[in-house]
Amino acid sequence: MHTFYEAVGFGAVKSARAAERLMRDTIMHFDRRNIYKNEDKLVRGEFTKYYAPDLGLTVTGEIDDTGSFHPEYTFPFFYGRTVSMKQVVDYEKHSADDSVGGICDDPRIGTSIIFYLTNLGEYMIGKNKGLIDEGKPVPIRFSALAKKGTIVLPVYKTALDEEEDMRAREEYLRLVSDAREGDEAAIEALTADDMNNYNILSKRVQKEDILSIVDTYFQPYGIECDIYNICGNVVSCEMVQNSFTSENVWKMQIEACDVLFDLCINETRLEGEPVRGSRFRGVIWLQGSVQFRRED
Questions:
Q1: For 170, left (φ over 0), alpha (ψ -120 to 50), or beta?
Q2: Between 235 and 107, whose confidence is greater?
Q3: Beta strand 43-52 with 227-241: parallel, antiparallel or unpaired?
Q4: Structural domains in the chain (count)
């Protein structure tokens, strides 16, 4: 069973028998189905069922010559409604199964972002029809599943602080853009800023808690490439109930490093109650759905 089942409200699904019942329910009462051929020209099926708004389970497997479906793997999903960014995406098939990961860059994060592609069926259908625009920016909706998390207080800022932060972010993005074009002055300025920030933080962290210094962060975590440690501002939140288990799930829109994305977590695994303006801190599995070009 997937380790993030509980995040979307399947905490009660612990045994293999319960997981099989959930999988059969998804296949028999699917809300969306995609049939496509993979790179080996094998016919594949993808069955998706929503067990609460925007979240649920997807079952993927092979369809044989008789039309019978043979499930191979499942994964819990949460579809984000927010377009997080528009960037060029590179796609890489995972070695363990037919699933695909996406890779993109965004200067606001400062590192390559790797995510689990949740709309694989749409990607494969588009790829087979030549509708995937390699090398062109596409809208990406990020979503995150968290096993556990904590609500923490926000950093107090005045209106003047907000304005100064905004100017600093704009200047940083300008320097990054210039540095990517080979501007040596921009590269030197970024290096000097990094050294200066390191010196300031080294002094402040001796007397202050790190969460009072750093507003938000988005960092790779562990050895799995699509797992991140984040702290982000809660923009909005609501609670929904999983129809299969009746477990409550928090859905939140999070802003971290100026990137908006949606996040869900089981109510029992969240310390504190989220409200607009608070912050969420935790380890997430980053998913993403890409908006592909459609046939004219």
A1: alpha
A2: 235
A3: unpaired
A4: 1
Which pTM value belongs to this model?
A: 0.89
Sequence-ordered list of residues with C-beta below 8 angstroms from that of 183, at least 6 positions apart, any chain: none
Q: What is the mean pLDDT of residues 6-35?
A: 94
Mean pLDDT of the residues in the chain: 90
Q: Is residue 170 part of a domain?
A: yes
Residue 262 lies in a domain: no
| CA–CA separation, 286 and 85 (whole Å) | 14
Cβ atoms of residues 290 and 89 within 8 Å: yes
Domain membership of residue 177 as a residue range: 157-210
In a domain, 65, yes or no: no
Residues 279-293 have a mean pLDDT of 93
Q: List own/partner pairs for 118-122 with CB under 8 A and 24 or more apart.
A: 118/58, 118/77, 118/79, 118/143, 118/287, 118/288, 118/289, 119/289, 119/290, 119/292, 120/34, 120/46, 120/60, 121/34, 121/35, 121/36, 121/44, 121/46, 122/34, 122/292
